[in-house]
Amino acid sequence: MKKLTLRVAEITALSPLVKRFRLIHPDGAPLPLFSGGAHITVDMPEGDLIRRNSYSLVSNPYDGAGYEIAVRREDRGRGGSLYMHTRVSEGDLLTVSAPKNLFQLDLRARKHVLIAGGIGITPFLSQLHQLDILQQPYELHYAAHSRSEAAGLTLLPDAPHIHLHISEEGSRMDLGAILDGQPLGSHVYTCGPDGLIRAVADQAARLNWPTSAIHSEAFTAPPPGEPFEVTIASTGQHLRVGADQSLLEALEAAHVPVDYSCRGGACGRCETGVSACNGQILHHDHWLSPDEQASQTKIMPCMSRFKGARLELDL
Amino acid sequence: MTRHFNTETFRGDYTYHNSPEAIRRFPFPFDQDTYTYSVNIAPHPGGPTGSTFEFAFDVDEHYVSEMQDRAITLAEDPNRCQSLPHMELAGWDLLELIMVSKARDYPDLFTLNRDGDQWHWINRPLGIEQRFTFLDPATLPYGPLEYITRQTQGDFALLHERDRNLWLDAGMITSQADWSLDFDVGMNFFEWHAPVPKARQMGVFDKALKFLLAVEQQQAYRRLNWTMTVNPRLDTSPENYHKWGPEKRSITPQNVGQKQFLRVELQTFWRLPRSNALAFPIRCYLCCLEDLCTNPEWARRLHLVLRDIDPVLADYKGFAVNQKTIVEYLAGFSCV
Asked: How high does pLDDT run on average in chain A?
């Protein structure tokens, strides 16, 4: 995987909980361009541990002068966003991956309907740039609890096809009204909480939208949880996964090589076989099918955890 | 550096020929004495100076003549280049990748000057100078995919990613090993590979698709594929089978050394930045048995591979009808 070492050029508070980080090449060299909806993975070294979180790029994808990400502080997370908020200053160097995209626009669409919930606005911010450049029709619906929580507000143009839904002000999003009557060939994209993604998919299904026209991105940072133990089948090695550590991070810390990309349960790269399981795998990914999850024979170590007596990985 | 470009044909009188240097650098595809399917993937570009792997897009002595042959094929059948409407952006990505790479790797042959979206491209071997506005198709004589691939050796497929699959939604295909863009355009990865025997059951395609979906920007890969072609013909298409199919019956023990070619495809995989599409260039290299056998190790190995190959693959690769003659010819070089 290609890595880039970039300098933090500017940190801006977008809301009480969300900061925007602008990253540039230390020599001013242009950065690789990307496509709307792409993300980068940020290395966050702390002692012997390297945490890695993926963040959507919110800047113009056709502008290689710098990358911008927006990070929401999660006080109950496993520490990645707190690291970004409290340990990273302007002028620091950060190691990041090249841009990758698991939430690209389907450019076959006659119209793009973008639905964001809360911090789920981030992938749409780069997509809006791309849609404007390509001159493709779209509308954006951005739902947030309150204006002060709507961090994306300052980054959105004031335009008739940008719709804000602030539940505190009584303007809750009406998915039926949004999806009904869209022209044939429209595609809908949702990013936000699982409940919103499910609600959009259900509503679209009720209106007979083809499943290939329904897109979503739910990947988030790995959740913390109770510590647990795993066994490596090939070596018999026992590893302890800490409360604020993902299984993938614990494997990396123990130098057990596992391929990865998104670190958010969406890309499938870290899929690992389970050779013995006496307990319950806590699946948090969006990659394995419900049947695969229920079989407890596979796990996505970037996101998922375990509760029980024994988990043996086919590594 | 001075470079020589052959004057030669890939049809009719078939004057295609390899210089000793071209034979030396031929990408011989076999690393063992037997052949079976493998995904055989390596990072690209990267290889010894002068090798076909050294640069992103290899330019060799056949460049000018290959581009003339492509123009003939396109004039007869414009459907050899197609791009579904949503793939135009990927075409621009590919144009940028090729122009930037060639201008960097072959500064004596190609120059690219960029001032914002105002681009100035000079292709000296083909005598082309073009000023255009990047992302504005009205400023080029063809769409971006067709424009740049009329100036670049090899076939090009552009693959659109959706629904955890890849879709063959654009391409420039004039030097193919018996498959048709017009037939395959719009198909997904499993559909367009359906004719390949055995591989699906072996799980080859599931692994290959998983690999391809994971290809990231800034890191391209390559693999080699091969087949056998009678006469140095680039356009071995289904559309023109009536022209080249009967030529398979023209092989004799006397002419097999000159008329039977090993056809090697250097396939590369690139993730494109703006479109997130995958570019899949398929570069064709041709070398006749006589020239290959100037390398004793190649002669020995090719003899064993073609003698012992699974009959189903000999049939699929189109040389079953001449296998006996080819193997007997190669046996003459394999006394050690």
From this structure: 93
Q: Is B49 on the interface with A (CB under 8 A)?
A: no
Which pair of structure tokens corresponds to residue A49?
């541990």
Q: What ipTM describes this predicted complex? A: 0.88
The dihedral over CA atoms of A226, A227, A231, A232, expressed in degrees to the nearest 10, equals 100
> Taking a C-beta distance cutoff of 8 angstroms, is the pair A289, A245 a contact?
no
pLDDT exceeds cutoff 80 at B116? yes
**Strand-strand pairing, B118-123 and B128-133:** antiparallel
Q: Looking at B173-325, which runs of residues are DSSP E strands? A: 220-230, 260-271, 278-288
Q: Tell me if A102 sits within 8 A of A219, measured CB to CB.
A: yes
- Span A157-187, pLDDT tens digits: 888 999 999 999 988 899 999 999 999 999 9
For A144-163, give one letter per residue: b (16+ CB within 10 A) or e: beeeebbbbbebbeeeeebb
Q: Do A107 and B216 touch (CB under 8 A)?
A: no
Alpha carbon distance A299, A288 (integer Å):
8
Q: Which residue has the tokens 């292709």?
A: B123
Structure tokens at B283: 């570069």
> Whose structure tokens read 């900061």?
A19
Buried b vs exposed e over B6-40: b needs ≥16 C-beta within 10 Å? bebbbbeebebebeeebbebbbbbbeeeebeeeee
Show which residues of B are catalytic: 223
A7 shares contact with chain B (CB less than 8 Å): no
**Where do runs of H (alpha helix) occur along B172-310?**
181-184, 189-192, 204-213, 241-244, 256-259, 289-292, 296-308
Task: Please tell me the CATH code under which domain A111-218 is placed.
Answer: 3.40.50.80
Poorest-confidence range of A219-228, B126-135, B225-234? A219-228
Domain spans in chain A, listed from the N-terminal domain onward: 3-101, 111-218, 228-313
Tell me whether the omega of the peptide bond preceding residue B45 falls within 30 degrees of 0, making it cis.
yes
Type of residue at B106: Y
Amino acid type, B196: V
Distance to chain A for B131, nearest Cα, Å: 21
Is residue B262 classed as helix, strand or coil in its secondary structure?
A: strand
Per-chain mean pLDDT for chain B:
94
State the pLDDT at residue B228: 95
Domain A3-101: state its class. Answer: mainly beta
CA distance B254 to B241: 25
> What pLDDT score was predicted for residue B39?
66
Min Cα–Cα distance to chain B from A216, Å: 11
- CATH class as words, domain A228-313: alpha beta
Contacts with B302 (C-beta within 8 Å, 6 or more apart), sequence order: B30, B262, B289, B292, B330
Q: Which of B46-83 are b and which e, b meaning 16 or more Cβ less than 10 Å from the residue's Cβ?
A: ebeeeebbebbbbbbbbbbbbbebbebbbeebeebbbb
Which of B224, B228, B240, B226 minimizes the C-alpha distance to B179? B240
Is B73 in the A-facing interface, judged by CB distances under 8 Å?
no
pLDDT confidence of residue B1: 47
* Structure-token match 């602008």, residue found: A22
To which residue do tokens 């026992």 refer?
A238
pLDDT score for B37 = 72
> Residue length, chain A?
315
Query: Which residue in this structure is represented by tokens 């399981």?
Result: A277
Say which of A38, A100, A134 has its CB closest to residue B89. A134
The answer to whether residue A267 scores a pLDDT higher than 90 is no
